[in-house]
Design a protein that fits this description.
The complex is a heterodimer of chains A (about 350) and B (about 325). Chain A is α/β, with parallel strands linked by helices. Chain A has a single domain (about 10-95, about 175-340), classed as 3-Layer(aba) Sandwich (Rossmann fold), CATH 3.40.50.300. Chain A contains 12 helices and 12 strands. The longest helix of chain A is centred in the middle third of the chain and has 18 residues, at about 190-210. Chain B has about 325 residues and is an all-alpha fold. In chain B, the strands form 2 sheets. Chain B has a two-stranded antiparallel ribbon. Chain B has a two-stranded antiparallel sheet with strand order 3-4. Chain B is elongated and about 80 Å long. Chain B has a single domain, classed as Orthogonal Bundle (MetI-like fold), CATH 1.10.3720. In chain B, helix 7 crosses helix 9 (about 190-220) and helix 9 packs across helix 11. Chain B contains 13 helices and 4 strands. The chains are: A alpha/beta (about 350), B mainly alpha (about 325). The interface of A and B includes residues 99, 100, 108 and 122 of A.
Amino acid sequence: MTTTNEPLLSVQGLEKHFPVTKGLFKRQVGAVKAVDGISFDVFKGETLGLVGESGCGKSTTGRLVTRLLEPTAGKVVFEGRDITHMRQGKLRPLRRDMQMIFQDPFSSLNPRHTVGTIVGAPYRIQGVQTENGIKRAVQDILELVGLNPEHYNRYPHEFSGGQRQRIGIARTLALKPKLIIADEPVSALDVSIQAQVVNLLEDLQNELDLTYVVIAHDLSVVRHISDRVAVMYLGKIVEIADRKSLYRVPMHPYTNALLSAVPIPDPKARAKSDRIRLTGDVPSPLNPPPACRFHTRCWKAQDICKTVEPPLEELASGHQVACHFPENAPEAATKTAATTP
Amino acid sequence: MTAPLDVPGSAIEAGPETVLEGADSSVIRGRSLGQIAWMRLKRDKIAMIGGIVIVVLILVAIFAPLLVSWLGHPPAEWHREKIDPAIQAPLGTFGGISKDFLFGVEPTTGRDLFSRVLYGARISLLIAFFATLLCVVLGAVFGMIAGFFGGWVDTVISRLMDIFLAFPLLVFALALGGVIPDKAFGMSGDTLRISLLVFIIGFFNWPYIGRIIRGQTLSLREREFVDASRSLGARNHVILFKEILPNLLAPILVYSTLLIPSNILFEAALSFLGVGVRPPTPTWGGMLAEAVHNYDVAPNFMLFPGLAIFVTVLAFNLLGDGLRDAFDPKAR
């Protein structure tokens, strides 16, 4: 991991509120707080995993960073430039360096275009000249992602899900971006194909010196690919740490619950593990709980959790947690067994 | 259609499909959705019959003068000798059908019904095609804009469509047909009447197709390939024309094929009511209107124009249904 002091992407207090309107005159009666003040940095060459339940705002975050959605508040800084409210025209050249992989390989490829047109679109849209013509460049990229370059003239419906996702990745790579936001890159694929695509992403990272933000709900995928992991709950980041310490000593109760829900393939080990069952549903982002958003489902919640919002604090080096009563905290490290219910 | 399995490593050297396609094609070409639809359409016998009938009808309309000079008499030529002067009805069996007059003759005037039906096809098809073209262009443009941009643009266009659909079109057409003088807008005679009909039918029927296009655009806009294109930096017009429009061609084709027969019927209705193209230019609807007065003595006068309308409308509807099935991946 080659981290420099200057982050490639820096997100500060990012918010996205979708207005809820009512009546003929579109009076605003409320807002869905999909993303409600999140901050994180992504350094060159690393992979940041963004995990959380569905509806917690992961995908919205991805779309805000790539400016497919307009942020309500906060800042997105890419390569030292503030792109939060940059006009689309000025943003266009910067888009070369920041690309997105989409979740659904059946919806992210235009069914009316050939593979050649789809993967060649970045060159045409950005007006990039290639040495030996667009066709040659496209075929090189197809080969790079493990597809037959002769499939240039085929249509997306003639491919399997995994191959289609490779086509999507090829399109993403066409302009040699620095940062790739992967929005659930493998969740629509079969498990056997997931591994192939995840490995492909890793190989490409080594080969092309890419930086990833991987959005996923699958903890094992994130564990496999990420250097650092951020856990989101209801539009906020509750814990952010490097992979090892997050998976080994999770501090936020929510992270603990998430990790305990990962299926264990060994029945003997499964019997010994005590799974934390969260009660109730995720509260509505229309009207999220005050202060700590997890207090409605947290077994450790006390009065302070309902009144004072816990700040995201660094409890160990590179390990930030937003909780009043963190588990596995360094000073309480000796009595970890007692704190686990 | 089976997608070739992805075998990592070996896929680059020789995918299974390269073996399947054999040595005759060195370049692998995929089949587009349009080509697949065409293959399906070719298997649909009823739709193909409809298509063949339409092609024949169009050829007949184009070569009407040739066919008439060969098999009939000029459409405006009177043949009083074929008329019984006592009752003004055609002489001979079933309206005077003979080798010279294939469909018999008109009562009173004795004009050749065969050539009048053939020439009527020109007017009907011409008006129906251009009216449909106007509908499709207006409907596609406004539908795409409304669906793609949403917001107040969508509200304005959608309400505009509601107003057009609520418009008493037939009453308006009758009134306009009566008001417009013989010379207007630099045109006169048949040209003016044809342009007027194209305008009335096209301008007031576009919301039907506009709503369909709006709905389709609305759903296409949310597809991820639009986001992908936008995240590459594509401008709105590029997304509209390069990403969304190609996906709209199928519904546009299907609904224009289904719109043509309804426009033929509308033109016939207007001609029947006397606001269409003026006599002596033959139209199917106009002939039917005259035939009403003497169907008992000259049943051929009502039968042949009616049959022409029926066959044309049926052929277009059959083809349109076939096209819809061919383009719909769910209906195999």
